[in-house]
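Schema walk-through. Below, the input block comes first and the output block second. Nothing else is stored per chain. Lengths vary across the set, and this one has 106 residues.
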Amino acid sequence: MSQILHVEDDPDWRRIMKYRLEQLGYEVVSCASLTEAREGFAQGEFVLVVCDGDIHGKGDGINWARELQSQGQKVIVVSGYPPEDMPSMNKNNIEGLGTLIQSVVQ
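--- output ---
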């Protein structure tokens, strides 16, 4: 089964997204912080990283996503204010998650 690393600081959104990603057939490693995500990323192989763009109000999720993307890792940023220069989705459009993942992972 393909693994996705999911980073989200909000516990409710983390639970919702993990459930949705599992429904789509992925094994999910969920992390509550970038520190935890970096450790998890170093220990596994992930077909995709789904990252909150504004972890703990610092906006550093987008920076880490860009770093990963520059290394060839496929990334989707999930944010209330998604960046326009990379695959992303607004948190208010969770129904479109499966389609977006398919387009990125291919």
